[in-house]
Design goal:
The complex is a heterodimer of chains A (312) and B (347). With 312 residues, chain A is of the alpha/beta class. In chain A, 34% of the residues lie in helices and 28% in strands. In chain A, the strands form three sheets. Chain A has a six-stranded mixed β-sheet, sandwiched between helices. Chain A has a four-stranded antiparallel β-sheet with strand order 11-12-10-13. A three-stranded antiparallel β-sheet of chain A has the order 2-1-4, covered by helices on one side. In chain A, α3 (97-106) packs across α4 and α4 packs across α5. Chain A is elongated and about 75 Å long. Chain B has a four-stranded mixed β-sheet, with helices on both faces. Chain B is built from 13 helices and four strands. Chain B has 347 residues and is α/β, with parallel strands linked by helices. The relative contact order of chain B is 0.11. Helices cover 64% and strands 6% of the residues of chain B. In chain B, β3 (99-103) and β4 (108-111) form a beta hairpin. The chains are: A alpha/beta (312), B alpha/beta (347). Chain A binds chain B through residues 54-57, 76, 79-80, 82, 84, 86, 88-95, 99-100, 102-109, 130, 146, 150, and chain B through 3-6, 8-10, 12-13, 16-17, 20-21, 183-185, 187-194, 347.
Chain lengths: 312, 347
């Protein structure tokens, strides 16, 4: 059985002065039945990649196969088997939820009933409401309903929970999980670490148009070498070199950014006393100290030296 | 049966979005009526104004004066008033009368005030009446062309109809498409197996559906308020209207085929429509423009539309007799539609 998505040496260059290389040789394989996340900062090329996979943009070069088919010859069949939700689509304001879903259903030769799709995203109570009256989370769920009403095998979601409140995000996660649990494939982009960790079977960390890390969230975190992070800052903000902490026991790597030190450590109970001694020797006192489990955020910081959120 | 027909669903979506927006309904249906009403009243035919003429009764032979008075009074343009003494001079000076007739031994004197047009008019009228008395050759038989069909409102209504068909076609198609593109709805549709043909047809068909009540309202309004009738056949008129709606929606499709913002599409619309409002004979005949530019004016779709509508409504022409205009209109619908399909930007 072919993979759900296969993408080799994908390149997309937008003409201009200078030309913008949005995607620079990206390779991906997404297996059937997995929830796959493209993780990266804004401008990393996530949306461009997704839109090429969705057949909405043509790649400058590279090979793309969706469910074993290619866009050049089998676009119409692919479209019948995928469902998508764009980053922002303003559906008609003055149509009701049911009317919008019914309209989308009419585009597909096969699919589920419009009311069934509405029920799957728990919008039954809003079925007769105008789209303009929906909250942000409800609109996003409507977008997902439109994406699944054609009973797709593969679902593309571009930043499905961006800008939503925590409760709406959890609701969407449940919807996406139940879709995946039915054996279907999901490909989503996000710049939320927690979303990727909770939802995705595998993630590809994308930066500057390339995949810089690929694996399950746990694998990627384990690849840091240490599962824990010690963060601290010092009184008076002295210009200390981060390197002097990297030799401490159990410390795998150390970095400093705007006065905030971060140590990736394997065993905090070994690293912490050593850190205290080191600070005492240097005559420094702690302003803040914090230890926590490593997240995908740390993976990104470790790989790029930049924070995910302010990397542009 | 229609439940999951894409063409039906797309058309229903357009119709629902339209009638659920009361402001849009007002502008599309009521505004043209208000405009027709305002213009119809402004340019309605005034009753013929009568010219006051004074005649001095206490000079000359009273028999001759009585006869002259009766002759002049028989002319419906003139209002004859008998005065005595020098009263006529005061009245002429103050504009209360336009002309004074004073009989003398030699005949009659006509006193006018050359700076006032109505005074000159009165003089000519009186002279004509007097002249007709004297000379019976050649025999003059007067007729007045005052039938329905020659009034300004009769000329205006087909023009407004054409203007509406153009505005409706361009805005109704062009604006809607640009708006859908801005909202990324076109892109979202593109990602589904929806057939592009179904989509474009739904836009054009729903446009034609909106046109029916719009046109009927205007025609009914013209008939009830101003007694504007259709001299030709209803079939011809209907055919022209449908052809016009299709033609201008093709043009609207072209105008909106690339525009990425509402501002761009509005600008393009105005660029296309404004010159035609002026030169294509909506409010006054396009023949008033110089001969040199006539070939261009005659090739414009709105000129063809207006000429064909007036031909049918005012002169009772058949479709065969306006086939030239029909050909121009069909061309303006078909060619832009084909170009638009080729260059249409979906995202």
């Amino acid at each position: 059985m072919p993979p759900a998505i296969l993408c080799e040496n994908l390149v997309k260059t937008f003409p201009g002065r200078p030309p913008v290389e949005a995607v620079k040789g990206l390779n991906l394989t997404v297996n059937i039945g997995e929830c796959f996340g493209l993780l990266g900062p804004n401008g990393a090329g996530k949306t461009t990649t997704l839109e090429i996979l969705e057949g909405l943009q043509d790649p400058t070069s590279g090979r793309v196969e969706i469910l074993g088919m290619n866009w050049a010859g089998q676009a119409h069949i692919i479209r019948q088997r995928i469902g998508i939700s764009l980053q922002e689509t303003r559906l008609a304001d003055k149509l009701t939820v049911r009317e919008v879903v019914t309209m989308f259903r009419s585009f597909y030769p096969n699919g589920i009933e419009a009311d069934e799709a509405i029920a799957r995203v728990s919008l039954e109570e809003k079925a007769r409401s105008y789209v303009v009256k929906l909250s942000g989370g409800q609109k996003q769920r409507l977008a997902v309903a439109c994406a699944i009403v054609g009973d797709p095998d593969l679902l593309f979601l571009d930043e499905p929970t961006t800008g939503l409140d925590p409760q709406s995000r959890r609701q969407l996660w449940d919807i996406i999980k139940s879709f995946r649990d039915a054996g279907k494939t999901v490909m989503l982009t996000t710049h939320y670490m927690d979303e990727a960790e909770r939802l995705c079977d595998r993630v590809a960390v994308v930066d500057k148009g390339q995949v810089i890390a690929l694996g399950t969230p746990n694998e990627l975190i384990a690849r840091l070498g240490g599962q824990n992070i010690i963060e601290f800052s010092l009184d008076g903000d002295p210009a200390l070199d981060a390197d002097r902490f990297s030799k401490l026991p159990s410390v795998i790597s150390a970095r400093v950014q705007t006065g905030q030190f971060g140590l990736t450590v394997g065993e905090p109970h070994l690293a912490l006393p050593a850190l205290m001694n080191e600070l005492q020797r240097a005559g420094q006192s702690l302003a803040t100290l914090n230890t926590r489990h490593a997240t995908l955020e740390d993976v990104f910081v470790n790989l790029t030296g930049r924070q995910l959120r302010d990397a542009d | 049966m229609f439940r999951y027909s894409p063409l039906f669903q797309l058309m229903m979506a357009r119709l629902r979005e339209f009638y659920r927006e009361p402001a849009a309904v007002f502008w599309v249906y009521c505004f043209p009526l208000l405009m027709a009403m305002a213009l119809g009243i402004a340019f309605r035919d005034r009753p013929i104004e009568r010219i006051t003429v004074d005649i001095r009764e206490d000079a000359g032979s009273s028999e001759a004066i009585t006869k002259l008075k009766a002759t002049l009074a028989a002319d419906e343009r003139l209002e004859v008033k008998g005065v005595t003494g020098d009263e006529w001079r005061k009245r002429l000076r103050s504009g209360k009368t336009s002309l004074a007739i004073v009989a003398t031994d030699k005949g009659i004197e006509l006193w006018d005030e050359p700076n006032r047009p109505e005074s000159v008019l009165a003089r000519h009228a009186v002279e004509a009446v007097v002249y007709k008395q004297v000379s019976k050759e050649p025999a003059v038989d007067e007729h007045h062309l005052d039938e329905t069909g020659s009034r300004y409102i009769d000329f205006l209504l087909p023009g407004l109809l054409g203007m509406n068909l153009m505005g409706g076609g361009l805005w109704g198609v062009g604006y809607v498409l640009a708006d859908m593109r801005v909202r990324k709805l076109l892109k979202r549709f593109l990602a589904t197996p929806m057939k592009r043909r179904d989509f474009l047809l739904s836009i054009m068909f729903s446009r034609m559906l909106f046109t029916v009540p719009e046109v009927c309202a205007l025609l009914l309004f013209g008939y009830v308020m101003f007694d504007v009738k259709n001299a030709g056949s209803v079939f011809s008129l209907l055919t022209l209207i449908i052809l016009g709606a299709a033609s201008f929606s093709g043009l609207g499709l072209l105008v909106a085929s690339r525009a990425k913002t509402i501002e761009t599409v509005s600008g393009l619309m105005n660029l296309v429509m404004l010159p035609m409002y002026i030169v294509s004979g909506v409010f006054f005949s396009s023949e008033r423009f110089p001969e040199a530019v006539q070939p261009i004016i005659q090739a414009l779709p709105l000129t063809a539309m207006n000429d064909a509508l007036r031909g049918v409504m005012l002169e009772g022409k058949t479709l065969m007799e306006v086939r030239g205009e029909i050909f121009v209109l069909a061309g303006w619908g078909f060619v832009p539609f084909i170009i638009a399909l080729k260059i249409f930007r979906w995202r």
